[in-house]
Amino acid sequence: MKRIVLTGLGMMMMGWALFVSAADEEVREVAVRQRWPWSPKVDIHYVVACDPTQRVDVAVEGFNNGASLGRLPEASLSGDVYGVSYGEHHIVWDPAQTAYSNTPLTGFSVALSLVPAKTYMIIDLSKSAGQEGQITYRTDGVWYDITNRVEHMTTNLVLRRIEPDTYIMGAPGAEIKDGMPQTQHAVTLTQPFYIGVFEFTQAQCKQIMPSYTGGFTVDGATRPAEKISYNTLRGTVAGASWPTNHDVDATSFIGLLRTKTGLKGLDLPTEAQWEYACRAGTGTGLNNGTDITNSLADGNLALLGRYKYNGGCLSSNRLDTGAVVYYEPPVTVGVTGGTARVGSYLPNAWGLYDMHGNVTEWCLDFYTNNLGAAAVIDPRGPAIWEPFLALKYLRMRRGGAYLSTAVQCRSAYRCDASASYMQAHDAPLYTGFRVVVPLPLEQ
Amino acid sequence: MLKAAMCMPLVAAVGICFSPAGMCRAETVTADIATTTESWLWQTLSTNTVPLALNWPNGATSAQLVISGMNCATQTVALTPAESNYMWTAFSTAAPAQEEVYELRLTYYEQSAVSAVYTARLAAVSGAFGADTVKADTASRAWRKIRNDAVIPYSALWDATTTAATNVQMAIAGPARSETLFFDNKLGYYGLKLLNLGWGFGTFDLTLSFLGTGVTRNATLFRSEDGVLLSLQ
């Protein structure tokens, strides 16, 4: 592919022709410099020449006087490591986070290798951390036939990588809305993260907590886990610490999942991450580029997820008036009522299923009524819990559920959880979760 | 096929052009119409020969290019409108023998009157030609040690608290003299030349001020009298 580039900036420059073929990704002009005497951090500047539609990850190998130091730990690198495209890029290496913090490197250089971006992470939940083949990757753009293999909803946990960007969180004035304010504001997410393609299923839960029960029982293996509280997921001691840190109780669900996978950063999504992943680049009420046209029943939503009026609730006619009434189905209802098997409806543009409807999904954030209009970067929610009536320690939920109306299933809809829902014994049906794994990986 | 690249000198030539705004650089390989001069790669030499493009203002009859550095003799080149570029040889070897910051000044004349002046600052640093020295232990004496000349980087983009800085200022308080430098760009290199300039031996206090933010960075260096020359690793 031939591309003419100009250097611009009011300079009196000529243009050069740059010939780049789609199969000719290349790293050029690598320059390494420590921020001496100001900081021990090391800047690595480089240029990627590739097709502008391609995204690649960068592996950094260090050398000292020609002797390999091995691949620098991902946790010690920041900047343009993941999902980079053509042009100038910048990585920062922090030697203080490695074994070299006390060893001067007299001849430090790096070799940068480009690898295809790992779009999907597949975790075999039947294996333990470090076991060969436990974590594998795919580089597909969108893995559309993932729903054809039931193991991806039972014994495997599949997560899709989401590249960081700035987006508008909240709903525009014209959108049909309900509930607490959904004030539009710019949110910048600076780090990529993996997020579950599906809501966590009952079968997957049992891989982690064999004693787990909850959710609809018929064909329950591939239906979302429910009746699982925030406290069960993260614990009540260390797990109460968000947003201060990512700590969880070791015996909590996520604590056990971290131990099983070796992924120390695995957690619930923040509200900002959840909505960004749900929208998949859309600015509309639903993530397929449409808006609901009715706050109750909506044909656009019916394509995207299970909610009240497409099987989530059962219906019957009142004997006296003949009016149709909807009611919550028993836990023994088949997959045509209540929750659907995960992946039964259309995914969004990033291949994520059931972001609208099925079960509402726990987020990390403490409750706050109004997120405000100010632009934010990597928001973590309020620092302390905000009381709502006489309740406390509320956390946020998103997405709507099988018994929600259309307005409650929108991308921007925000829902808190009453305190009792936080407790294991009172956790409701219709509340589940999906997990995220932030990059760089903490292992 | 994905290729790996070491930090090694490149064969491709680098095209340089001047801008009244300060640094500028054009590459035969860099691709991005959005590239700005606030970029390390713009100011870092990766080759020893640099073609300098000349775009003569209307009416200019002559030009003078002056190139100076910490350790090299000052070059003065007379240019005429018939020349559209000048091939500058920064150093004769594939990699520089020592680190250097070059100051380039291009003056266009219309007869004897100055028509326009352009400047640029380019650095030849070890990490662009092979390997850098990384002293990771900031509490060690090695971190503070300075012998002779040094290339000191600065950047308002290292931290989110300073990215909004309008300009950067570096104050150097040495044992025998002090200096305050004002940079019209947010990032770059400064060549601190110590030899034979009356700086003395002992403690040097450096302060980097990011104007418009109120944020400063500090560093303390110690220059000993052992007289060992800094050499490029």
Give the tally of β-strands of chain A.
Answer: 23
Could you give the order of strands across the largest sheet of chain B? 11-17-16-13-14
State the share of residues found in helices of chain B, binned by percent: under 10%
Average residue-wise pLDDT of chain B: 81
Distance between the termini of chain B: 32 Å
Provide an overview of this structure.
The complex is a heterodimer of chains A (443) and B (233). Chain A has helices spanning 202-208, 230-234, 253-261, 271-279, 419-422; strands at residues 2-5, 16-19, 26-34, 42-49, 56-64, 67-71, 77-79, 87-93, 105-116, 120-124, 135-138, 156-162, 166-169, 185-188, 193-196, 314-317, 324-327, 360-366, 376-377, 395-398, 414-416, 431-432, 436-438. Chain A has 5 helices and 23 strands. In chain A, strands 11-10-12-15-23 form a 5-stranded antiparallel β-sheet, with no helix packed on it. Chain A is elongated, with a radius of gyration of 24 Å. Chain A folds into 2 domains: 4-116, Immunoglobulin-like; 120-438, Alpha-Beta Complex (paralog of FGE (formylglycine-generating enzyme)), CATH 3.90.1580.10. With 443 residues, chain A is mostly beta strands. Chain B is mostly beta strands. Chain B has 2 helices and 17 strands. Chain B has helices spanning 40-43, 141-144; strands spanning 5-6, 14-15, 26-27, 49-53, 62-68, 75-79, 85-89, 100-110, 113-124, 132-134, 145-146, 150-155, 167-173, 178-183, 187-192, 202-211, 215-223. In chain B, strands 11-17-16-13-14 form a 5-stranded mixed β-sheet. A 4-stranded antiparallel β-sheet of chain B has the order 6-5-8-9, with no helix packed on it. In chain B, strands 2-3 form a two-stranded antiparallel ribbon. Chain B is globular. The interface between A and B is large, with 65 and 62 residues.
